[in-house]
Amino acid sequence: MKKVGLGIIGCGWAARDLYEPAFRFLKNGRIVAVMDIDESKARFLKELYNVPRCYTNLDEMLRDKEVDAVVVLTPPHHHLEPVVKSAEAGKHVYCEKPMAPTIEEADRMIEACRKSDVKFMIAFMKRFNRSFRFVKDLIDKGQLGSVFELRARWDNARVKRMPESQYRLKLISGGGFLQEDGSHALDICRWWLGEVEEINAYIAIVAPDRHETEDVACVTMKHKGGAISTLHITMITHRTGEESYELFGTKGTLVMRWLYHSSRSPEPALIHLYRNSREVQDLTLSSSWNPLQELRSNWQYLRELEHFCYCILHDVEPYCTGEDGRAVVEMVNAAYLSAWKNERIRLPLKKVPDLREFFTELRSRSPWSLGEIEWSSWY
Ligand SMILES: NC(=O)c1ccc[n+]([C@@H]2O[C@H](COP(=O)([O-])OP(=O)(O)OC[C@H]3O[C@@H](n4cnc5c(N)ncnc54)[C@H](O)[C@@H]3O)[C@@H](O)[C@H]2O)c1
């Protein structure tokens, strides 16, 4: 079987931990090169995955003829350069979410990939999770009737001080927890219920002594078809990886939840469908006894990377496009703008002012502080 030659750009946590089963079990692609501006990280990954070559210079890696496509795993504010340069070098591009901090950067990426006629996929891995797909299918087949409301929740404790080297929760990355983690849930809201036309948000920094951007957010959206969705996310919580989606339709109410983090566990979600006030159906999918088997067949990061390679090999448009990534960037920016100006924001968003002023003000006005409080979290 022909395999796509992959070059990884950014050899940090995601490349090392999150993608490990994907990189090890991928069948239609193989890693031929890794690149990081930090040489020790690139070397570590080269050893870990037994990769032929490692680079610290992007241009050099892009001259590597065995690299057909790149997997961009740099921080969000460092996606632009690798995406644009890789496209210009004729490499297909797979880029982690959030696609970019601004719509302008997202547009430049889309344009570069379009001009070079390369595949461009944004890594919304939840769309490759079989529980999420199963629910999408139920909605599309009308099993819930007309869906008029979605309530999404993501509570994920990250209450240890971030190391200095971390980009997360820093102004430089262009956003906070909503941009970083919330992007996934915003994509699910749009994927399930369609385009969003209006956004209203409340955003807070509960730990201004350690975070420059938001650690709590509550976003309400109106979709074009009239449905409403809300997303509540917080990282200041004593729970870790609590994730749930409640869908309200004219024929049924569906509750989908994970006790622990859909991205970390190969276990399917608990799914219950309520009908006629009394009837409850357990629609939870089953899983294999063998955890390796489960990883090979259902690990969402593997499935999405396989899909990307498939699209290259068979000349198919990826399921999550640059436009999907851009739509979420727009939603995040609209939420920031709404919270800042205390206004409902209509999409498409014309222009987003520099949000530095907003975050700086939000931080200085925050009535809370965590001081020395820390508790254990996975991060
Ligand atoms: N889908 C998910 O579930 C998920 C989970 C975690 C992270 N992510 C995404 O993956 C990306 C990386 O996150 P992470 O946690 O690995 O970050 P990280 O900070 O651990 O790693 C980033 C790496 O990129 C390198 N880097 C920075 N600028 C670079 C450049 N210009 N060229 C080459 N290398 C550069 C850094 O040296 C570092 O090794 C982010 O976009 C993040 O949002 C996605």
Can you give a write-up of this model?
Helix 5 runs parallel beside helix 6 (103-116) and helix 8 (177-193) packs across helix 11 (322-341). The chain is built from twelve helices and 15 strands. The protein starts with a strand and ends in a 14-residue tail after the last helix. A hairpin with a 3-residue loop joins strand 13 and strand 14. With 379 residues, the protein is an alpha/beta fold. The mean pLDDT is 95. The protein folds into two domains: 4-125 and 297-319, NAD(P)-binding Rossmann-like Domain (Rossmann fold, 3-Layer(aba) Sandwich); 127-287 and 327-365, Dihydrodipicolinate Reductase, domain 2, CATH 3.30.360.10. It is globular, with a radius of gyration of 21 Å. Nicotinamide-adenine-dinucleotide is lined by residues 9-14, 18, 35-38, 41, 73-76, 78, 81-82, 96-97, 123, 125, 167, 180, 263. Residues 9-14, 18, 35-38, 41, 73-76, 78, 81-82, 96-97, 123, 125, 167, 180, 263 line the site of nicotinamide-adenine-dinucleotide (NAD).
